[in-house]
Write a structure and sequence with these properties.
This protein has 358 residues and is of the alpha+beta class. 41% of the residues lie in helices and 10% in strands. The chain has a four-stranded antiparallel β-sheet, with helices on both faces. The chain has a two-stranded parallel sheet with strand order 3-8. The protein has a two-stranded antiparallel ribbon with strand order 5-6. α1 runs antiparallel to α6 and α15 packs parallel to α17. The longest helix is centred in the middle third of the chain and has 22 residues. The protein is elongated, with a radius of gyration of 22 Å. The termini are far apart.
């Protein structure tokens, strides 16, 4: 059995190595399932707040906690990588010519960057744990593609707290963190859970253009622009089209207004997430012209690529209809004949909006 002093030394060196790999924050949580977390997940699913995200419900049994997925897990290492924006996320809010892409998707695909760094940290941990006398340490790495509740685990590990918008908030990095986790058999001493520091503030809820928060700390994905533009596959419901404005992929509003972001350390942003010039302020006219080949070329290496050209152009047509820019009318008319029925329907709406401008 490895003594506590040896484990604490390994923990301190792991934190330092994680920072060297580009992680902005690191914390440790126990791997035992938390019944309260599981109950909150069940309530959220029962209310239908997950919308079309069937995978949330299909694997709810293992999503409930680390040991529900892997009974041998002894510790959870929660990690965050900063993507703090260098410009105001609201800068293009009133632009009819340009579209708004969520800050997190303007750079490289976080899945790739995070997974590479997590695997490097995992290899380091296995080697260093064995040197410390821990026989055959095991671990699993996760970033967003497995049934893992990264945000509650991040709170339990002390790297932040879940704000009223449900996202993790960190005192040094604000709301701009990509989250990953390592489950391991190494029995690290857990850190203290983070206190909730939202207080009476409700800025995130007040800022939501589609009223997606039925209560503090709860999100109804079916009303969320991020969900509607990324996960939702059919036509955008009519009631949300005007509130979408020129947002074509995701929405930053509830994050951007969080007062804690004024403390965000922009120097800590991982360079892989720096905005690509062509995605920071893209012109709607250019995006509406994309065919499948052009879409794949433009979004190579971007998380946007996974939604496909049709869903993306659907979003751009909603933005075009909201733009008031009649120079986009010819392109919208061309898309009336698009082979994808959802795109064609969005084009009809956009044409109707652009031809009824006073």
């Amino acid at each position: 059995m490895v003594n506590t002093e040896c484990l604490d030394d390994l923990k301190a060196r792991l934190i330092a190595h994680a920072h060297s790999l580009g992680f902005a924050t690191v914390g440790f949580a126990p791997a035992e399932d938390d019944p309260l977390r599981g109950e909150r997940l069940d309530s959220w699913l029962e209310a239908g707040h997950h919308g079309e995200m069937e995978w949330m419900e299909a694997r709810a049994d293992v999503r409930r906690g680390p040991q529900s997925m892997w009974s041998e897990a002894a510790s959870v290492i929660a990690l965050g990588m900063s993507y703090a924006p260098s410009v105001d996320p609201f800068a293009l809010e009133d632009s009819g010519e340009h579209a708004r892409i969520s800050v997190y998707a303007q750079g490289g695909d976080y899945h790739v960057t995070m997974k590479k760094a997590l695997k490097a940290l995992a290899r380091w941990l296995v080697a260093e744990a064995e040197r410390a006398g821990i026989d055959a340490p095991e671990l699993k790495v996760f970033v967003d593609t497995a049934p893992v509740m990264e945000k509650p685990l991040g709170e339990a590990a002390g790297i932040g707290w879940q704000g009223k918008h449900s996202n993790l908030v960190n005192r040094e990095h604000g709301s701009w963190l990509f989250l990953g986790a390592i489950y391991t058999t190494v029995p690290f001493t857990p850190d203290e859970p983070h206190d909730d520091r939202c207080g009476s503030c409700n800025a995130c809820q007040a800022a939501c253009p589609t009223d997606a928060f039925p209560a503090p700390y709860q999100v109804d994905a079916r009303r969320c622009i991020s969900y509607l533009t990324i996960e939702h596959k059919g036509p955008i419901p009519e009631e949300f089209r005007k509130p979408m404005g020129n947002r074509i992929y995701g929405c930053d509003d509830c994050l951007a207004v969080c007062p804690w972001n004024k403390f965000a350390d922009h120097a800590a942003r991982n360079k892989a997430f720096s905005s690509r010039a062509e995605l920071a302020a893209p012109r709607l006219a250019d995006l509406l012209a994309l065919d499948d080949t052009g879409f794949r070329a433009l979004f190579s290496g971007s998380p946007i690529k996974r939604i496909g050209r049709d869903r993306f152009v659907r979003n751009c047509l909603i933005a075009a209809g909201n733009s008031g820019d009649q120079s986009l009318l010819d392109q919208a008319n061309v898309l009336l004949l698009d082979p994808d029925p959802v795109v064609a329907e969005a084009a009809r709406w956009a044409v109707a909006q652009l031809t009824t401008i006073p």
